[in-house]
From TrEMBL:
<feature type="transmembrane region" description="Helical">
    <location>
        <begin position="161"/>
        <end position="181"/>
    </location>
</feature>
<keyword id="KW-0472">Membrane</keyword>
<feature type="transmembrane region" description="Helical">
    <location>
        <begin position="92"/>
        <end position="120"/>
    </location>
</feature>
<feature type="transmembrane region" description="Helical">
    <location>
        <begin position="132"/>
        <end position="154"/>
    </location>
</feature>
<feature type="transmembrane region" description="Helical">
    <location>
        <begin position="201"/>
        <end position="221"/>
    </location>
</feature>
<feature type="transmembrane region" description="Helical">
    <location>
        <begin position="12"/>
        <end position="34"/>
    </location>
</feature>
<feature type="transmembrane region" description="Helical">
    <location>
        <begin position="54"/>
        <end position="71"/>
    </location>
</feature>
<keyword id="KW-0812">Transmembrane</keyword>
<keyword id="KW-1133">Transmembrane helix</keyword>
<protein>
    <submittedName>
        <fullName>ABC-2 family transporter protein</fullName>
    </submittedName>
</protein>
Length: 228
């Protein structure tokens, strides 16, 4: 099942589209419109500056990917073939695992391009351990967003648009009272990832988001009529 999702995603067309978007975004951000360094640059500052932009870009790219994997499979009738061989819970579990793996691959691809630019443009030494740490932290911080996208894809046909609107609401939570904004998934991207402020409250909140969203996703998916 996971292999099937990989075959469906890693087609020449999709690789060109998503890979091209990431490459163009990085070239625009780090090469064409990069600010001139006023001080000595380090790998740490370069990576953190880029991640501050990537926390907007990657979730936007992930929205149609999640929608395509869940909503489109339902709409085109593919889902009924999956449940012939596996239970609904196993089907959804494989799709979520596939999404996590695809997101991880996208982060690795993005960091690889950034590292090449850092070496040839900025002449800095790459810290592979910081790369791995930030990559894993980035993937973890995106988990609640991914699970929210999955929930929306289960509930609605226009999941891509709604997912984007929900994400924009999350990232624009400065317009929401601070007490509410601090408990949205934005906290994991801004506070935990960018500011490296991982406290007990953040861990508890992350656990609550994960448990509740996983429960809702499986509950609703099991109740959903998959024969469209």
């Amino acid at each position: 099942m996971i292999k099937n999702e990989f075959i469906k995603f890693f087609t020449p067309l999709k690789i060109s589209i998503y890979g091209g978007i990431i490459l163009i975004f990085i070239l625009l951000n780090d090469v064409l419109f990069a600010d001139k360094a006023s001080a000595i640059v380090t790998f740490h500052t370069l990576l953190y500056n880029d991640i501050s932009s990537l926390i907007f870009m990657l979730p936007i790219i992930l929205s149609p990917i999640v929608s395509d994997m869940i909503t489109r499979d339902y709409e085109c009738g593919c889902m009924k073939f999956f449940i012939i061989y596996k239970s609904k819970s196993k089907v959804l579990l494989c799709k979520i695992i596939s999404l996590i793996l695809i997101t991880g691959i996208m982060i690795i691809f993005t960091f690889t391009i950034l590292n090449v630019i850092y070496i040839f443009k900025d002449s800095v030494q790459i810290d592979i351990f910081l790369d791995i740490k930030m990559g894993l932290l980035f993937l973890t911080a995106l988990m609640p967003v991914l699970l929210i996208y999955v929930l929306i894809s289960i509930l609605t046909k226009n999941s891509t648009i709604i997912s984007l609107l929900v994400f924009l609401l999350i990232v624009m939570s400065d317009f929401i009272p601070k007490t509410i904004g601090n408990i949205t998934p934005r906290r994991f991207l801004w506070e935990c990832l960018l500011k490296n402020q991982i406290d007990k409250f953040s861990i508890i909140l992350f656990s609550i988001y994960t448990i509740v969203l996983v429960f809702l996703n499986f509950k609703l998916f099991n109740k959903k009529e998959l024969i469209h």
